[in-house]
# Entry
Amino acid sequence: MAKMDALLNGQHRLLACIKSAAPFQTLVVRGIRRDAFETIDTGVKRSMADVFSTKGEAHYSNLASAVYSLYWMETTGAPIPRLVQPTHKQLWEVLERNPGIRNDVSWCSRNRWTRGMLGAKYVAFSRYWFRCDDDLAAEDFFDRLESGANLDIGSPVLLLRDRLIQSKADANIKLDWKYKLALVFKAYKSFRDGRKVKSLRVRMRGDGAEKNVWDL
# Structure
């Protein structure tokens, strides 16, 4: 147990004891540091969401996923996971450097349409990343994407909404998460720069692949 008798380990054993009404003897250790949770029972790896949960973070599962994407963006220049996974310490340091991402996770939890179309972690990550680039443009972009209001012909937000809706409705044109996120990046850059567009697509592979998909 940590300070104030917050339980760090043994939840399943205690629940089993309650359900079975069978008492048992065990060692109880108090005063353990909360960050020791990360290394307790290391044979069964704890997720970053577990760690955030014990630290009292709101929306801890979506926060953990968004921080993962942010870690890859910071270290590789693209929000795409690699084979070697970051440690909990590295991910916690990402959150400490970028505390504002909590606001974007919270925004995502309140806005169902965008979350349902893109996935919570990608919405929270990209909204935060765009706000680091241009706070007002990013908030306006996502508010319009969520509401669908005030979108004229040629608006990159309107084209993005249309593509996401089509992908959701028709399994034959379903887009994978990397492509959808690339569309979000491209639409945001056009919106921020005030450009009207006739179509919205990203070439991800082949000789004509776009090289700066993730650059702002």
Q: What stands out?
A: The radius of gyration is 21 Å. The chain is about 55% helix and 0% strand.
